[in-house]
Amino acid sequence: MTTKHEILIIGGGTAGITVAARLLRKGYRDVAIIEPSDTHYYQPLWTLVGGGQAQAQQTARPLASVLPKGAVWIRSAAKTFDPERNTVTCTDGVSYSYDVLVVCPGIQLDWDRTEGLSETLGKNGVSSNYRFDLAPRTWDLIRNMTSGTAVFSMPTGPIKCGGAPQKIAYLAADYWRRTGVLDDIDIHLVVPTPRIFAIDAIADSLEKVVADYGIHLHTGTELRSIDAAARKVTLAPVGAAGSETILAYDMLHAVPHQSAPDWIKESPLSTVYTGGDPNGYVDIDKHTMQHVRYSNVFALGDAGSSPNSKTGAAIRKQAPVVVANIDSLLTDRPLTAEYNGYASCPIVTSAHDMLLAEFDYSMQLTPSIPGLDPTVPHRSYWYLKKYGLPALYWNLMLKGLA
User: Fold this and answer.
1) Could you say which of 31, 33, 161, 189 is catalytic?
2) Which of 89, 216, 348, 389 has the fewest beta carbons closer than 10 A?
């Protein structure tokens, strides 16, 4: 027997909860969320955990405490879609039908796509702030290091919080400077892009930060493999011929390749279905967030194909668009709400300064705080990152109020 819900949401993360809260505030009463996890995480703070500026327990709350009242919680995991019949089947074999489907299960961390990474993760001097249990391990490595070589890497392809791979390098360098050992540590920051950031004014500012810390910046390069036994990494050029570089390390902060969950990739909702992006995100119109083939399916957040930076700030702007367009669809009106690609990338550059890059699809800066130059770090931005944004998240965003 199939249970029917008017609006079915896949994923109880930032996007799913925010959309559900907004729908309930708009008057919809039959809203269900499929989510297997019992814990909800505020992931943007994991960088500060790894940098010794926050505690891991601050980032986790029971999912039941943040789900909007009135939403039905289906404690299972989605497995397959049948958009022709408007049904979703979960791993426990139970199927659910819907009038409107919202797909936002988050992103998949593909640790195995970097040779040697999954086997050595969490040991042999290797950590990653992209896992809740490993962010404290990153801080252990940083605070116990007094000399040697530290490598911080970023993979090719879209990832959530694109600034995170470089932020932890700056926090580490700042700590090592404050404890008097920076000159004894050889820091390497490996990024696959031509510059440290896609917007020139931001890149100019961050390159000054890199130079000030004495960080060796490897652009157009990615971490190809890890030899944990020898404590060496292989760096390779991206998209062009060139020689590989073997680099010994004492500490490695590695960020995995990322993609849509495999069960999304294998579904008719995926970009793979039509021979598009092999990362397999849900194939949506980048402005309306509506699926390009199934009009009663929407997606937002990290699993959507919209070419914005994958951040919580993007979700905060996408959610009202999705809710408005769902309302238009169910009341037989044209979809007029549009998302402009807004994203915000808070880049901490020390234990007391942060740069806040806000931009849209055109990569034009769209600052929201008057009086502060968005291209340079400020102390007031740091307080926003550590205190303001978490308060906004827990108290307003997840409740459909911001």
Assistant:
1) 161
2) 216
DSSP 367: -
pTM above 0.90, yes or no: yes
d(CA 300, CA 314): 9
Please say if 161 is a catalytic residue. Answer: yes
**Which DSSP state fits 274?**
G
Q: How far apart are CA 55 and CA 77, in angstroms?
A: 29
| Residue 49: alpha-carbon gap to chain centroid | 16
CA separation for the pair 98, 9 (Å, rounded):
9
* Mutual angle of helices 312-330 and 14-25, in 10-degree steps: 40
What is the bridge-based pairing of β-strands 251-253 and 60-62?
unpaired
Pick the catalytic residue: 209, 210, 345, 356? 345
Percent of the chain topping pLDDT 90: 96
Q: What CA–CA distance (Å, rounded) separates 263 from 240?
A: 32
State the pLDDT at residue 276. Answer: 83
Domain that holds residue 178: 110-258
Active site residue 90: no
CATH number at residue 318: 3.50.50.60
User: Does one domain contain both 268 and 182?
Assistant: no
Which residue is it, tokens 């960088």? 47
Task: Give the chain's residues under pLDDT 50.
Answer: none
Contact indicator for 107, 310 with CB cutoff of 8 Å: yes
As a dihedral over the C-alpha atoms of residue 283, residue 286, residue 289, residue 290, rounded to 10 degrees, the angle is: -60
What strand order describes the sheet that includes 221-227?
Answer: 221-227, 232-237, 245-248
User: What is the enclosing helix (H) or strand (E) of 151?
Assistant: strand 148-153
C-beta pairs of 270-276 under 8 Å, 24+ apart in sequence? 271/305, 276/305
Q: What is the pLDDT of residue 188?
A: 98
Q: Identify the residue whose tokens are 């993360």.
A: 13
Does residue 116 share a domain with residue 254?
yes
Question: Could you say which of 258, 289, 305 is where a domain stops?
Answer: 258
Is the distance from CB of 162 to CB of 206 less than 8 angstroms?
A: no
Closest CA to 330 of 86, 22, 7, 2: 7
What's residue 122's pLDDT? 96
